[in-house]
Write a sequence for this structure.
């Protein structure tokens, strides 16, 4: 119990003292020792443990009344116990207060404990950075390091800031961020991400982002703020809590006043009204529901899945349609030139022209062509370069008008190209309106994609759809290989939004649609879908901004995993709601009929809260 | 200016909500959030009146939960 705070320790001490006193009094009461005392003396004896256990409640209630908060749980507990004293139920009054405090202490302990286990998960904050200063290493606060500074990271140290390696070779453990246990190799020129642990070798690196913009800071902020995007269920509970307490309190008042006007049995009806007041706090729900969502988010982040809020967890649990972008999501997005088919020129010339035409494009296809060309590009030779999104590029190279792109772009420009049907992306080229050949670029399916689709369906997704700008032949091949239900090919970026909108219309009332993309070109689609999932985006600001769920590594299998976590979280949350409401209403009814006593009411209040919290803590468990 | 504070002994989720509502009503505060789970409070308010506003925030918090302390 070393983890108790000072406040909790005081509460525990008071509970123990009261419990001992109370147990003694109960023995006296049952053996008849107290029967010889006048009623006022007996009441006075019970007041002692009552004050020990309840003084802070009385003070809080008084303060809150002064501030105008009447329907406050402290006040209601006070009214209930004082009323119990008035009608001679001394032991009940003390017991109610005692168990209420036990429950409060337990709640505070349980919440603190689950908070700790979540913050432990997120314990990725680097404490210092090493900076070389006159040939000596100095430890400084990562906050003081500026972009462009060179930092030294020794084996076993946490990478303090996002940086690029300038010297050295190492294995990097990214487990804290991605959940991936196999270390990743990194050497000169590779980006390293803050929060990861440097494994084997000492490295020097140039800082690329200030601490407040670095990955580790952004991730922490994201997880900490997740609570502010509340799920519908959470909002429902907040609204319910606002109505519930006044409703039960007024019902208690009616119960205490109206029936005795007819039968005159005031103490019996007041006792029944007291049971109402004890149950009037919605604590079980107010604490356990957000705790459940928080646990679910924590458990997801441990697996390298960042969920930006409880509401998204709720939506994912109803996921029925999953729409995937192809390149970089289902496939590796690593394009390689697989064949060059020149027409009227040499392979080398064709590649050179293509590489120059693509010299300003950051599309993966352009990069692969430049890589295949392999020589440095003199951009002075290129003028008037332009891009037709989804189709291709055009430029003036050495005074020749070069067009590079898909077959549609060739046709639009009146160029007769020989259409190839090989799998892969075919880039056609024309110089001064004459066809000069084609370059085939292919991409391979990502490991685990097929498995992920299968698992998604097992987890409840009905439709898996692929969207791509690639040709139909290519899309058909990938779709068949992955077992997708539908696919749309030859799309322009703008078409993707339209198709997602159409698919959204096809969804039933409680069926949700997710779009999975790499977050580079698909921000509008990510935003339009019920839920946007960004992939492979360690460090990519755009993806973290645009998406609702971020998968830290490239693994598609994390999507069925987050679905499972979400369903389990929702099940636990619903269990708590149903359980708490059922017990409360049952005890309210039994209390009104005079069957339930104060003891049962305390259970319905505190006992239920504790059980619900324990149940919520299950969301933290690793699946 | 946006600042974060740690809260100690914030024991009830309901109170966190009430605090947040109360802080948002303080003049000069543009945004505020009280995070029960992380026991943290984020306040966005006018730069020049920040200290003054923080005093009001403190009173607002202790009105809702007397035990709760803001660690400055």
């Amino acid at each position: 119990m070393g983890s108790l705070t000072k406040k909790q320790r005081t509460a525990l001490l008071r509970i123990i003292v009261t419990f001992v006193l109370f147990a003694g009094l109960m023995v006296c009461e049952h053996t008849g020792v107290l029967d010889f005392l006048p009623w006022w003396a007996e009441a006075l004896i019970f007041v002692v443990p009552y004050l020990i256990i309840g003084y802070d409640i009385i003070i809080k209630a008084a303060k809150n009344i002064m501030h105008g908060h009447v329907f406050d749980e402290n006040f209601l507990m006070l009214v209930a116990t004082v009323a119990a004293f008035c009608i001679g139920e001394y032991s009940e009054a003390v017991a109610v207060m005692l168990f209420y405090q036990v429950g409060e202490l337990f709640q505070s302990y349980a919440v603190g404990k689950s908070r700790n286990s979540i913050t432990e998960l997120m314990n990725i904050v680097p404490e210092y950075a090493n900076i070389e200063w006159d040939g000596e290493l100095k430890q400084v606060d990562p906050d003081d390091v500026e972009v462009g500074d060179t930092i030294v990271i020794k084996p076993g140290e946490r990478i303090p800031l996002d940086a690029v390696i300038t010297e050295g070779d190492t294995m990097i453990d990214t487990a804290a961020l991605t959940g991936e246990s196999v270390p990743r190799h990194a050497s000169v020129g590779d980006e390293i991400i803050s929060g990861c642990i440097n494994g084997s070798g000492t490295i020097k690196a140039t800082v690329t982002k200030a601490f407040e913009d670095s990955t580790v800071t952004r991730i922490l902020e994201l997880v900490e703020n997740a609570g502010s995007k509340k799920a519908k269920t959470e909002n429902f509970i907040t609204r319910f809590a606002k109505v519930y307490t006044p409703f039960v309190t007024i019902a208690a008042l009616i119960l205490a006043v109206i029936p005795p006007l007819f039968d005159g049995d005031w103490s019996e009806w007041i006792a029944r009204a007291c049971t109402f007041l004890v149950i009037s706090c919605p604590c079980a729900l107010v604490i356990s529901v957000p705790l459940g969502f928080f646990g679910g988010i924590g458990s997801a982040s441990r697996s390298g899945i960042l969920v930006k809020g409880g509401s998204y967890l709720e939506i994912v649990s109803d996921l029925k349609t999953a729409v995937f972008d192809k390149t970089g999501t289902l496939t590796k997005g690593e394009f390689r030139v697989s064949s060059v088919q020149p027409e009227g020129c040499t392979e080398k010339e064709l590649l050179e022209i293509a590489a120059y035409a693509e010299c300003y494009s950051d599309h993966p296809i352009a990069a692969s062509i430049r890589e295949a060309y392999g020589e440095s590009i003199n951009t002075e030779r290129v003028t008037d370069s332009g891009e037709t999104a989804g189709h291709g590029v055009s430029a003036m190279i050495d005074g020749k008008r070069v067009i590079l792109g898909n077959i549609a772009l060739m046709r639009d420009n009146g160029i007769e190209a020989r259409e190839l049907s090989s799998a892969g992306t075919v880039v056609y080229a024309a110089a001064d309106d004459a066809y000069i050949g084609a370059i085939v670029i292919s991409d391979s399916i990502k490991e685990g994609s097929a498995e992920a689709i299968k698992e998604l369906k097992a987890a409840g997704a009905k439709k898996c759809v692929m969207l791509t700008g690639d040709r139909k032949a290519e899309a058909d091949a990938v779709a068949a290989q992955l077992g997708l239900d539908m696919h749309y090919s030859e799309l322009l970026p703008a078409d993707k939004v339209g198709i997602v909108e159409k698919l959204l219309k096809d969804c039933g009332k409680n069926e949700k649609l997710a779009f999975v993309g790499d977050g580079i070109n698909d921000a509008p689609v990510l935003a339009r879908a019920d839920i946007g999932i960004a992939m492979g985006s360690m460090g990519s600001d755009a993806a973290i901004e645009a998406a609702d769920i971020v998968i830290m590594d490239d693994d598609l299998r994390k999507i069925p995993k987050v679905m499972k976590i979400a369903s389990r979280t929702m099940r636990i949350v619903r269990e708590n709601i149903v359980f708490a409401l059922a017990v409360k209403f049952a005890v309210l009814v039994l209390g009104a009929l005079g069957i339930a006593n104060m003891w049962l009411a305390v259970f319905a209040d505190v006992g239920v809260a504790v059980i619900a919290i324990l149940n919520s803590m299950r969301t933290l468990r690793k699946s | 200016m946006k600042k974060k504070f740690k809260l100690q002994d914030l024991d009830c989720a309901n109170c966190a909500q009430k605090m947040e509502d109360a802080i948002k009503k303080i003049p000069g505060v543009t945004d505020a959030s009280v995070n029960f789970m992380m026991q943290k409070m984020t306040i966005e308010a006018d730069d020049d009146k920040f200290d003054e506003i923080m005093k009001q925030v403190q009173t607002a918090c202790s009105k809702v939960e007397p035990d709760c302390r803001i660690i400055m």
Q: What stands out?
A: Chain B has a mean pLDDT of 83.
